[in-house]
Amino acid sequence: MLNRVNAPNDLSAFWMPFTANRQFKQSPRMLVAAKDMHYTSADGRQILDGTAGLWCVNAGHCRPKIVEAIQHQAAELDYAPAFQMGHPIAFEFANRLVDMAPDGLNHVFFTNSGSESVETALKIALAYQRVKGQGSRTRLIGRERGYHGVNFGGISVGGIVGNRKMFGTLLTGVDHLPHTHQPAKNSFTKGVPEHGAELADELERIVTLHDASTIAAVIVEPVAGSTGVLVPPKGYLQKLRQICDKHGILLIFDEVITGFGRLGTPFAVDYFGVKPDIMITAKGVTNGVVPMGAVFVTSEIHDAFMNGPEHLIEFAHGYTYSGNPLASAAGLATLETYKEEGLLTRGPEIAPYFEEALHSLKDEPHVIDIRNIGLVGAIELDPIAGEPTKRAFSAFIKAFERGALIRTTGDIIALSPPLIISKGQIDELIDHVRAVLRAVD
Ligand code: PMP
Question: Transferase as a keyword (predicted)?
């Protein structure tokens, strides 16, 4: 057995992602083990996981069923290609995923991450329009404050300036809808905000500007996660769907965060009752344990490709690790765990408790807004003048010192604990946040 690796003295070789490397390496925060709701830090402390890793470990850490499935699969069939070859477990996993997916999303394309799922979905949308004889539909519509991973398609349709500005012109032919955050009207809303459905009408404006015959697809996160848990206003997603239908535009939901129980329902599609043509997932699909993504499409899209000339590869796209056996095994065990423990439908039981606990922070220092849906929430802080992000980041550091992992984006604290969290642990998490809000400058 491999033993736990002690932190080396030299941390310079690993260029860490989305991290202030110089700052981190002066005072590193290391996690060395995990179990259920907790990490163990290198100095031996138990850290309550308030963010399910990076919004992905929905069933909690080191779950025996998932661990065993991976061990067994690694010994049985470690790797097999999925190009012109098959292995049963990937087909089995696809079947189980389709069984639990919203009606009509009947086919799955496997990737290795959320970012790859985004690129895959955009390429399916563009290729589908061509296959249907509508090759002039090449324009993609994203949204301000959208996060769709870090690859070129994703940062092009995404709406985070910091992730875009260093990388040149990106994809051409992309427009953005306005974001749906309306603090003046909706602050401290519990759940779905009342105001703002009309923001979806901006899609009509874009259609008028460019003509529908040039637009392939609209991509949005049903709930924008990474930019601070922006819950769509009542009726907004329905409107987007209607406008897309009216103009023959595909609707893509990026459910990388909202998928697999985060909103208290299996998918955001189930929560809002609005169905996209393509649904992007990753993270919770394998409980974050082995990298994997899954893009769901309707039969209409899938069949349009399959009905082409027989001798051709229908879609010139795929990854060495698409449907990887280890990831598929982890995914199957993850779905079983979700099912056995009812984790994807815990909303009615646990979400109201989480909501009340979160909103009890309303009168704490620096708090200017609180938002929530299902088991995800955000606490927005008043930024320090001239030093945006500093206050929330300081809260993150203090929370870690106290024994809780929270996440910050700008001056927003986000909480998205594993779906196994108990009411007592929700109280504990909120108490940590309360204490750090009182302690930060
Ligand atoms: N889409 C959304 C909505 C996400 O939240 C994320 C990751 N947070 C991604 C895409 C990218 O996923 P990954 O980091 O696995 O590439």
Answer: yes
